[in-house]
Task: inverse folding
């Protein structure tokens, strides 16, 4: 009977140790899970910031919009160049007239 009690106490001690180890393991797993959640949130933010979450269709639309913008700027640039040439021509004519008037 005493031996049986001793064995039961040993079994209880072993089970207590196993429970403590399981509790420690559970805490570690919970910490790892929280760390993974934090890393996942950071990754999602980085993906949004970098624009990596876009589909190829979204990228095609964005590229198309940028091409349209580039075309508009190109036309504005050409218009400004034409105005510049026109102004240079007008200036040259005015200077020529002025020189002719000075010559008289």
Result:
């Amino acid at each position: 009977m005493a031996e049986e009690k001793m064995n039961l106490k040993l079994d209880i001690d072993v089970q207590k140790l196993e429970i403590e180890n399981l509790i420690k393991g559970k805490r570690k797993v919970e910490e790892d899970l929280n760390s993974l959640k934090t890393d996942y949130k950071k990754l999602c933010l980085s993906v949004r910031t970098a624009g990596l979450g876009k589909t190829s269709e979204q990228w095609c639309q964005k590229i198309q919009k940028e091409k349209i913008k580039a075309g508009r700027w190109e036309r504005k640039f050409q218009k400004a160049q034409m105005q510049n040439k026109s102004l240079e021509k007008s200036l040259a004519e005015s200077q020529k007239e002025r020189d002719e008037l000075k010559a008289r």
